Amino acid sequence: MSQFFPPERFFEKNSKILNIHGVAKSNRVKLRKKGHIAIEWDNGKQSSVPIEVANLIARGRRYDGKDPFSDDTLEELTCTVGSLMKHESNHSAGRHIFSTNHGLIRIQDFELARTFFFHNQHLTRAAFRANGLGEIAYVEGSHQQHILLFPLNTKYPVSNLSSLASRKHLAWIFIDQAARKSFFSIYTYFIEAHKNRELGFMFDAPDITGWHLKLLGRLGDDGVFDVYEIDSVRTHLKNRVGNVEFDHPKFKEKAPSDKKPIKQANGEMPPVDIDPEFDMGEIPSMGGRIDKKRQKGFSFNVDNIGTTILKKDTKKKPKKSVKPSKDEAPENGMSGVGLPESEGTAQEFDPIINQDESYELEDVPETQKFLVFRQLMNELSREEHYSLDELRCCLFPAPTNKSEAINETKDGLRLRFFIAKFSFKKANIVLIEVDTDSSTKNRKASTLILGFDEEPEKSLFKIVQSFSNGGASWNTAKIASNTNYFERMPHRSKDKEGNKFSESEYLNDWKERIKKKLEKFIQD
Question: What is the value of pTM for the model shown?
């Protein structure tokens, strides 16, 4: 094992990873106990890197400083997983072979664990420790409502909970029993390999039957697709995970952005390098800046899970203005990996995946008003030329400004809205209805009839985000700029003579007006 240590100062330049041999312990680096990943490069060299950068390591990748680049000669395969055919090992380095709708695929255990669990350095460290997830947080609550409690002295950054994808991923690991068992198996195999003086990596993957994977790799001579890198994951959980509330002591009103300057006691930004050079041998300092590196492209989407919200802290702290330091140029900084120490001088390097800007909408349980909307859409779908594709009840995204209107609801959740996606004479249509009944204020909001040309998910998200930011009202200019067709249709409670509609008359009037709008749209 010792041939791989001490680790190289940087990733091998102008070379790509040929193989990942495994993970082992070392006491040699500045007298600190650390775990390292053994790597074989295509130039014949062997080296190792700390486990804190595990989520950067994949076969075929090249590196330019802190930036990884995938092998652009690899083939792409998008598939749905059938079943596990075999879990094989070679000197304790494991590989899972699965059946899919496009034949057999073979994935190294390390690549599976990297994309399933190693989304940040805190999760990676926890995977190789006996206490595991207990070092990060613990779960309270029942099947329908869970609370993920972070201790007061937590090292887990609240910024790692700012995206919907990261919260759903963490909720899945903590609450889904198959995920927890799989996560703990990493430590079990690691200890066994260490006792046997072996250098390898194995773990037991959770049941991923029905999961959708986007893969990069090559078709082997044996007809099995050999996976180098997993590009995206969409789960297919058999057991629903209920609503999850994240109770983090450092969350106040909004999870902090990594782009905001750190506030100092004197109200000035410190004169340090905001993009320091990466040196694996440097020791991070306690209480210093964090050099966060968000990897783009990869996504891990968890289905069949309830709401995932951050618990609010009503205690408001006075705001400080931040001024640039007076006539001081930034110092050339360094960043390193590992636990911060008192004698450290570098920034802490924190690589993160699955934190891209997401346009995914968060599904929530149906409300009473949603049942009325469902009835409307079911009646419409029985009409000729109308084909209903999707019906959802979602939360409006959290405001990115100081608007609070979206939070003024009877149950404390953000305001909800309903989406219906259907086709009409080959035109794809989206209907949006706001659940104004759950608001504590007397709000009105028109039904939206939308047609999209390009990037429908992104455009739809921008429209509902503008509603959240705009005091719970539609922004006509924002809607127009993100659609190729739209109509705002106010609700009517009375007929032309002023008589109040019965429930059936109300639904029929709503349906007929939608049909007229769409017929006119098709003619135009």
Answer: 0.74
